[in-house]
């Protein structure tokens, strides 16, 4: 057992997937509040006008807004050292472009952080987790408009000053590299007009990278003790074979999807390979020298990422079996098993990824999303025997330990959806990740009662022994 004594064990959530209370206490509507429920076979529908006769999963979610005290008490019972959560932008600035914040929203997070402090739990706060105020999408098309940089900075500054003595660890954006794919427009970039213009998409991503760098610099000015990191969706990729074409295709995909945003946020400059990528795709960005200087100054203190699966890349993928995944699918790896949602389970890939990232960046790393989405069966006595979830996380804990032995500076782990929440991709409740069951179904029905799964007790022992229990 090699986990450091101060290792940050915990769990992760996102405001739009757990808070609910979408229109009370001054909160404005966010872009996710306009997305109806769906399922694995039906894409979620985005509506400009909210039809209250229809089901929008984020409107109630699991109602963490009214259950936060009990939920945090359960996290404390598991022994959490850290709780990753996000702040709903539209709860603080209902439209996103106001100058004066909503005090009721600020007060809610004061109470949440105070509750965490009561149990000695360190908050890890994602400033923006796929939940831009709808108004910013409707009026500005989100980060496609440069003015949204300043709106984000006003939001970040408000949080930094209000919670400077309550929060130490911050993440500027969730899975910022989501913006490298067309499917990422609506939730991350705020582009909601339905038009995928690749140039505008990358311009919006550039504005987000600048906003992140400015926030890092600003946060360090407000409180030099702040630790401010980036967060990426890391999709570990292997060449399908040792054919040079497969190896090259994998390298090129890796550069654009996995390395690009991290290189900018950690190293402070656009990497060389993006120049050719932009030229090949007809992308011309407005990147004034002032922006490039900001990127140099606003590099992050630590690097965090989500890890669920791996995939294979082929130079010619036609005719190859395909697999799904978080953010990005690919060619099926014949050596791996898949989850109920078609994601390839690859615990050893986490060790490989940690070594790859630490070799590239040499700053502290944290795994801030990892877990198994599965359909849980409730027994007649109310128990939930989720051995499959325990097995999944156990294997990943072992590989994190191995990576630490390799010399990787890994400082924390927050399992995704530590309490059941609505799926960001499908809006379902059936795809459950939590150690804590929430009584709610895919149609929004249920008592919201919380109950412990077998994995709750197991993860508690993992934390108690600092990773010695497997």
From TrEMBL:
Keywords, comma-separated and alphabetical:
Hydrolase
Q: Where is the signal peptide?
A: none
Pfam families per UniProt: Glyco_hydro_1
Q: Kindly list the GO molecular function terms attached to this UniProt entry.
A: hydrolase activity
InterPro entries in alphabetical order: GH, GH_1_N_CS, Glyco_hydro_1
Which PROSITE patterns does this UniProt record tie to the protein? GLYCOSYL_HYDROL_F1_2
SUPFAM superfamilies per the UniProt record, alphabetical: (Trans)glycosidases (SSF51445)
Member of which family?
A: Belongs to the glycosyl hydrolase 1 family.
Q: Which PANTHER family does this chain map to? A: 6-PHOSPHO-BETA-GLUCOSIDASE, GLYCOSYL HYDROLASE
Q: What is this protein called?
A: Glycoside hydrolase family 1 protein
Q: Which organism is it from?
A: Candidatus Enterococcus moelleringii
């Amino acid at each position: 057992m090699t986990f450091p004594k101060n290792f940050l064990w915990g769990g992760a959530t996102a405001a739009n997937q757990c808070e609910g209370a979408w229109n009370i206490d001054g909160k404005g509507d966010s872009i996710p509040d306009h997305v109806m429920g769906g399922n694995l076979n039906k894409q979620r529908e985005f509506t400009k006008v909210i039809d209250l006769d229809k089901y929008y999963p984020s409107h109630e979610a699991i109602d963490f807004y009214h259950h936060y005290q009990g939920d945090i008490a359960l996290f404390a019972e598991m022994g959490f050292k850290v709780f990753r959560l996000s702040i709903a932008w539209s709860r603080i600035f209902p439209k996103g472009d106001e100058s004066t914040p909503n005090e009721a929203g600020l007060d809610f997070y004061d109470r949440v952080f105070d509750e965490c402090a009561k149990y000695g739990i360190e908050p890890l706060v994602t400033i923006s987790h796929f939940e831009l105020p709808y108004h910013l999408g409707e009026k500005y098309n989100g980060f496609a408009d440069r003015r949204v940089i300043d709106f984000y900075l006003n939001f970040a500054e408000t949080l930094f000053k209000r919670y400077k003595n309550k929060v130490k660890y911050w993440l500027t954006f969730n899975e910022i590299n989501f913006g490298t794919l067309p499917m990422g427009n609506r939730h991350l970039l705020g582009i909601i007009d339905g038009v995928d213009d690749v140039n505008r998409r990358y311009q919006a991503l550039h504005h987000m990278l600048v906003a992140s760098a400015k926030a890092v610099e600003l946060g360090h000015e407000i409180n030099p003790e702040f630790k401010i990191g980036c967060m990426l969706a890391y999709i570990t990729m292997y060449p399908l074979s040792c054919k040079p074409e497969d190896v090259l295709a994998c390298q090129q995909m890796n550069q654009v999807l996995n390395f690009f945003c991290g290189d900018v946020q950690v190293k402070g400059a656009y990497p060389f390979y993006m120049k050719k990528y932009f030229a090949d795709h007809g992308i011309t960005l407005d990147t004034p020298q002032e922006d490039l200087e900001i990127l140099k100054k606003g590099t992050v203190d630590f690097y965090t990422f989500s890890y669920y699966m791996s995939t294979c890349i082929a130079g010619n993928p036609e005719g190859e079996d395909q697999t799904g995944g978080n953010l990005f699918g690919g060619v099926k790896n014949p050596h791996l098993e898949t989850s109920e949602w078609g994601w390839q389970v690859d615990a050893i890939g986490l060790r490989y990824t940690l070594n790859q990232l630490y070799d590239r960046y040499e700053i502290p790393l944290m795994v801030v999303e990892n877990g198994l989405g599965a359909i849980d069966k409730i027994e007649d006595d109310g128990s939930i025997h989720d051995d499959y979830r325990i097995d999944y996380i156990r294997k990943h804990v072992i590989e994190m330990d191995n990576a630490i032995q390799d010399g990787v500076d890994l400082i924390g782990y927050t399992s995704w959806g530590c309490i059941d929440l609505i799926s960001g991709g499908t809006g379902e409740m059936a795809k459950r990740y939590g150690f804590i069951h929430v009584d709610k179904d895919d149609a929004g029905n249920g008592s919201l009662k919380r109950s412990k799964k077998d994995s709750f007790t197991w993860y508690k022992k993992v934390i108690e022994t600092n990773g010695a229990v497997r």
